[in-house]
Write a structure and sequence with these properties.
By secondary structure, this protein is α+β, with helices and mostly antiparallel strands. It has one domain: Immunoglobulin-like (Sandwich). It is built from two helices and ten strands. It has helices spanning 2-20, 145-167; strands at 25-33, 39-40, 44-50, 53-60, 64-69, 74-80, 87-92, 104-112, 130-135, 140-143. A six-stranded mixed β-sheet has the order 4-3-6-7-9-10, with helices on one face. The longest helix is centred in the C-terminal third of the chain and has 23 residues, at 145-167.
Length: 169
């Protein structure tokens, strides 16, 4: 009887510890077409890197990608479609506590646009469109909103420069 109780409590302790290590963050990416008034973009490829190692390449028919994020990793997710400018996001879960009780749903709508000659968006090859990390105040994963705003401004500037270049003879 003693062995049964000991095994029961040990198993219960292991089970409760395993439950606290389950992912507490769900990434929800919605990929749309800028030119098609934010319509979902089909046949989009998602490349998933964990700590700089490619772990998944997923082709989705519809422009929606959901994934549970493990704690203690840096994710890089590249969004690609033929004839479109690729973008990527970085998700840093390294500082998130293993025993977090709060659940986070990280949502973002990313608009892809067609490649155009003389549209200078080369910075999108080296700079993520979005960056998320653990926020110690809210105790959740969160997007860096000022960074997102900066990237939007850079894309708008590049688009305006492209439009001006087409106007001049």
């Amino acid at each position: 009887m003693k062995h049964f109780l000991l095994s029961f409590f040990l198993g219960l302790a292991l089970l409760s510890n395993a439950q606290t290590l389950t992912p507490k963050t769900l990434l929800d990416l919605k990929i749309t077409s800028v030119e098609k008034m934010r319509k979902l973009l089909d046949n989009t490829t998602f490349l998933v890197y964990k700590d700089d190692v490619l772990t998944d390449s997923i082709l989705l028919e519809k422009g929606r990608f959901k994934m549970k994020l493990d704690t203690g990793l840096v994710y890089k997710i590249i969004i690609k479609k033929e004839d479109y400018v690729s973008k990527f996001v970085i998700l840093n879960t390294k500082e998130a506590p293993l025993k977090s009780k709060k659940f986070t749903k990280l949502k973002i709508d990313i608009g892809l646009f067609h490649k155009k000659k003389n549209l200078n968006v080369a910075f999108l090859k080296t700079e993520p469109i979005g960056y998320a990390r653990y926020d110690f105040i809210t105790e959740k994963m969160a997007w860096d909103i000022p960074y997102l705003d900066l990237m939007k401004a850079k894309i708008i500037r590049a688009t305006l420069d492209y439009a001006k270049s087409k106007e001049t003879p």
